[in-house]
Design a protein that fits this description.
InterPro entries: Aminopeptidase_N-like_N_sf, M1_LTA4H, Peptidase_M1_dom, Peptidase_M4/M1_CTD_sf. It is a single chain. The chain is α+β, with helices and mostly antiparallel strands. The strands form 6 sheets. Strands 5-4-8-2-1-14-17-16 form an 8-stranded mixed β-sheet, with no helix packed on it. Strands 19-20-21-23-22 form a 5-stranded mixed β-sheet. A 4-stranded antiparallel β-sheet has the order 6-7-3-11, with no helix packed on it. Strand 9 and strand 10 form a beta hairpin. Helix 9 packs across helix 10 and helix 11 runs antiparallel to helix 12.
């Protein structure tokens, strides 16, 4: 996710209404010995364009890889965060004021307040073919087990459900014939064997708190035949009368999304052995221009991240123009951009691409460690700018713009989401101060060692959910304990003020000359 700007989201959405008249390498293709320990999702879904809904059934083959019996199972139901405005993401536009609703109605006069709401309804749950009791509450599906799941035992959990897709500007939405289905299905929660309980945190409106394991996905999706579909993974299509059947295969990813519209067309490039496609609104000439400009950046950025961090591990990467309003979003092998209505539409493209490394291939718990993906991704974007502009718009520019964060922000950069006093505090620390610590590390150890730290961190934690302890371990292995301890204090303790990064004024003026 790219940080929202200082412009109010309300303003940005009203502006968008007015203006609208992101080869599988041989080493990665080999399955690891514990491949079958991952959850296996089989999803059969149908998009109803008239009702703006999804009728679906999923079967999750789950193995108890812990040393203790499991007495229940928990799935996240993130679509229930759309039940009411208060639980929707504050990072995306919503009709939270009468003025905003009135402005939206100027363009969409038939839309009601209920149309902005969405949810997921669980119809039935079976385990090994037998119906089981369950509860659906607070964005959680909890399944009580009459017979515990033993260690190393595998069970098949089948869930039938319906999703109501909200109209609007949130990241799951429909608008103007575009559909964005993100975090739309029951997602198996993460189990904490020490606490002996499942994660039941609802989606946090002020940040990202969705947390899931690497899994294998297969989906059969039925849509109207005129729809173009792009999804996490790779797609194959067949036409049956008036319907299109899309088969999707997405191994070893943290979550699964898809986008659909009859208005999509695409431009495709082969970049570093990866099929990169940019999907855009074929009715809008400006969309094509913006899509092509974005591909130019991706052509340079993918090889850069491959070299500096590690090889992109999937055969495809897709960039989607969508109708999200607010911040752009990242998902495995695919990113969700906003409407291509102005020249700044690609501003966060490299940031979202970098998330394929920091979030996609190295996972984390964004509730406990929000800086581990967002601060790292923000730095990666700046690192690319440093390289791409030969230092003209790189680290020094960003440090100069971050004097307040360096001198005055006293709190710890990384902390659980609920420990930031406000949305703006979360934004400032994770996006505006977190990258400073990584620039500090870069200058402290030099480019060669810094790159080796990132490569070590990537190699040791690829396809797993990492913590800051894993990153500090990589720092220790490459740069030693003293640097490791310094970085731990920088990210996790208060009063990190690296004023040594600010050049004296006279020196800066001489460089400018």
């Amino acid at each position: 996710m790219k940080k929202w700007t200082n412009i109010a989201i309300a303003g940005s959405i009203l502006s968008s209404i007015t203006l609208s008249s992101i080869p599988l390498h041989a080493a990665d293709a080999k399955e690891k010995p514990n491949q079958m320990d991952k959850p296996q999702y089989q999803i059969d879904a149908k998009l109803d364009q008239n009702q703006h809904s999804i009728q679906a059934s999923e079967t999750v083959s789950f193995k108890n890889k812990y040393t203790q019996n499991l007495n229940d199972l928990v799935f996240h139901l993130y679509p229930d965060s759309y039940n009411k405005l208060e639980t929707m993401s504050n990072m995306h536009a919503k009709p939270s004021t009468p003025e905003m609703l009135a402005e939206i109605k100027k363009r969409y006069p038939n839309i009601t307040e209920k149309d902005f709401l969405g949810d997921i309804e669980i119809k039935s749950v079976t385990i090994q073919g037998k119906k089981v009791s369950y509860t659906q509450d607070k964005q959680v599906l909890k399944i009580q087990l009459s017979t515990p799941i033993q260690p190393n035992q595998r069970v098949d959990v089948k869930i039938d459900f319906t999703v109501k897709i909200p109209f609007g500007f949130q990241r799951m939405n429909h608008r103007d014939g575009f559909y964005a289905l993100t975090k739309w299905y029951p997602i198996l929660s993460m189990y904490d064997p020490k606490a002996q309980k499942w994660d039941e945190k609802p989606y946090h409106p002020d940040g990202e708190s969705d947390y899931s394991d690497f899994s294998d996905y297969k989906m059969k999706l039925t849509v109207p035949k005129e729809m173009t579909v792009a999804a996490t993974g790779t797609e194959t299509e067949t036409i049956q009368q008036n319907e299109k059947i899309v088969q999707v295969d997405a191994p070893n990813v943290r979550e699964f999304v898809f986008f659909a519209s009859p208005h999509y067309t695409k431009e495709t490039r082969k970049i570093a052995g990866i099929t990169v496609s940019s999907y855009y609104d074929k009715r809008n000439p400006q969309s094509k221009e913006i899509a092509l400009n974005g591909l130019k950046d991706v052509e340079k950025a993918i090889p850069f991240f491959n070299q500096k961090v590690g090889q992109y591990a999937y055969p495809e990467f897709d960039i989607m123009e969508t109708r999200v309003g607010g911040v752009d979003m990242e998902y495995p092998t695919i990113i969700q951009m906003g409407e291509y209505s102005n020249e700044g539409a690609n501003m966060s493209l490299v940031h979202e691409l970098a998330h394929q490394w920091f979030y996609g291939m190295i996972g984390n718990n964004p509730y406990n460690d929000p800086a581990l993906d967002e601060s790292f991704t923000t730095f990666a974007d700046m690192y690319f700018n440093e390289y791409d502009t030969k230092g003209k718009y790189g680290f020094k520019t960003h440090l100069s713009n971050s004097k307040q964060a360096i001198k005055e922000m006293p709190g710890a950069i990384n902390r659980p989401l609920d420990q930031y006093p406000s949305t703006s505090d979360y934004s400032q620390y994770v996006y505006e101060k977190g990258y400073i610590a990584l620039i500090d590390l870069y200058y402290k150890v030099g480019e060669k060692k810094f790159d080796q730290i990132m490569k070590t961190y990537f190699a040791q934690n690829k396809f797993t959910n990492a913590t800051f302890a894993h990153f500090f371990d990589a720092v220790n292995k490459v740069a030693g304990k003293e640097v490791r301890d310094y970085m731990e204090k920088a990210f996790t303790k208060p009063d990190y003020h690296p004023t040594h990064l600010l050049q004296p004024k006279k020196e800066s003026e001489q460089e400018a000359k």
